[in-house]
Amino acid sequence: MSGKIIGLVAVVLGLSSATDLRAQEPTIIEEKVSKVVVIPVRQQIAKPELFILRRGLKEAIEQNVDTIVLDMETPGGALDVTFEMLKALGKFPGKTVTYINSEAISAGALIAAGTDEIYFAPGAVIGAAAPVMATGGEIDETMRGKIVSLLKARVRSFSEGKGYRSQVISAMIDMDMEFKIGEEVIKSKGELLSLTAKEAMKTYGDPPIPLLGAGIAKDLDDLLNQIHGVGNYSVVNLEVTWSEKLAQYLTSITPLLIGVGLLLMFVEFKTPGFGIFGVAGIAILAVVFFTQFTAGLSGHEPALFFGIGLILVIVDLFFLPGLVLAMVGGLLMFVSLVWSMADFWPKEPLNFSGGVLVGPLTSVMIGTVLAVVMFLAILRFLPRGGLWGHMVLEGSVGGEPGGQHAIFEGGAGELRGAALIGQEGIATTALFPSGQVEISGMRYEAKLLLGSATAGTSVRVTAAGEFSLTVEVVS
């Protein structure tokens, strides 16, 4: 019995010893590496920047990213797009940080204020977020009061619990606001607040906290080392796609595109039928319109106007020629282009005041002037004959090889066109509504005012224009 007791004690002592050895083994704790995505905000705040941000946030959510860093350098931009970007940031479940690489002005300051933390490069600045017209002009006093009130309420909603941030951003928005902490006046009435990196990091209150910034970092690596620690993170820089870069570029050359598009439409009206110039002109104007539409426009109404105008122009060209529908359609397209670029404030009734329309009208008018100048240059400097001679319908093609005869030659030759009025001939090509007719053995460019006609149809000349004849079908 005593032997059994001794054996049991030995077993217990052995188990205890083994347990002590295991307890002395070091426990290995795997340290988590934080995932970081850097999203560039480097242009004027417009729809392309919103799409870049949304894409980056969606990819980050799918990949369970911990921290989003906005690498910001922007002069500001559209207010409605700013609100959309703030909403998108609010959907990200992780930490959001703004790194002001150079400047965060106006809308950029509002977006930065919507992130969890704001870091500064040593020479960075932030501020001057008062609402202005797209043209840079002042807003009507009553409207400005409404917009400032709305902005300050939005700022309070996403700045709660973030120290002085709500007051600081409000002071950047409202010129009439006095901002002071204790007895120290940070901003007097009649001016807008802007801050350097050092000013944003200055501490106030008891306990002292920074005015706005979370820190100053010399670059992104320094920033991430401060947030996550050296070697405790993996970083992915979001690459801007070619289509996003294209959208940004097209937005910057809108007047030139409008000019080229209108030029091609002018040329199309001087050519028979409907061809490559009309297609190219409509395509370029559509690119202008839809680029602007995706860059921060108010709604679908401009697209509807543009579509109706385009339909009227096509109906005039193919089915009911007479220029009336084309003129109405062109006017609607012109209005839609201006409307699409107008900077209307969100949640406010449409106000077609002069200030709102100055910028869009300027762009469209510059485009129109460019189109006219280029068209006149083409008329003046391009050689006669060849493709251009056929394009502008300069002459009639003779029945004999190489024979060409102008409808109008100037001087006594001006009677030639009038002499053709009333004469009958045959359509040598289909008239839809334009084509060619043969009169007394000579071919001329011609068009019908109403309807269309097949080749071989008898026609009568009713008028002679500078570039072509107008005919009607002989019953």
Termini Cα gap: 136 Å
Q: What structural class is derived from the secondary structure elements?
A: alpha/beta
Average per-residue pLDDT, rounded, comes to 76
Q: How does the major sheet shape up? A: 8 strands, mixed
The number of domains? 3
Q: What is the gyration radius calculated from CA atoms? A: 35 Å
- Helix share bin: 40-55%
Shape: elongated
Assigned CATH architecture of the largest domain: Alpha-Beta Complex
- Report the CATH topology name of the largest domain: 2-enoyl-CoA Hydratase, Chain A, domain 1
What is the oligomeric state here? single chain
How many beta strands in the DSSP annotation? 19
Relative strand content: 15-25%
CATH class of the largest domain: Alpha Beta
| Total helical segments | 16
Instruction: Please mark out the parts with pLDDT under 50 across 5 or more consecutive residues, or reply none.
Output: 8-13, 15-19, 293-299, 345-349, 385-406, 408-415
CATH superfamily of the largest domain, by name, is 2-enoyl-CoA Hydratase, Chain A, domain 1
Secondary structure layout:
Layout: H1 2-24, E1 34-41, H2 47-62, E2 67-74, H3 79-90, E3 95-105, H4 107-113, E4 117-120, E5 125-127, H5 141-159, H6 165-173, E6 179-181, E7 184-187, E8 194-196, H7 197-201, E9 203-204, E10 209-210, E11 215-216, H8 220-228, E12 233-237, H9 242-252, H10 254-269, H11 276-293, H12 301-318, H13 324-341, H14 354-381, H15 386-391, E13 395-397, E14 404-406, H16 415-420, E15 424-427, E16 434-439, E17 442-448, E18 458-464, E19 469-473
Parallel strand pairs: 1-2, 1-12, 2-3, 3-4, 3-5, 4-11, 17-19
Antiparallel strand pairs: 5-8, 6-7, 9-10, 13-14, 15-16, 15-18, 16-17, 18-19
Helix pairs in contact: 2-3, 2-9, 3-4, 5-6, 10-11, 10-14, 11-12, 11-13, 12-13, 13-14
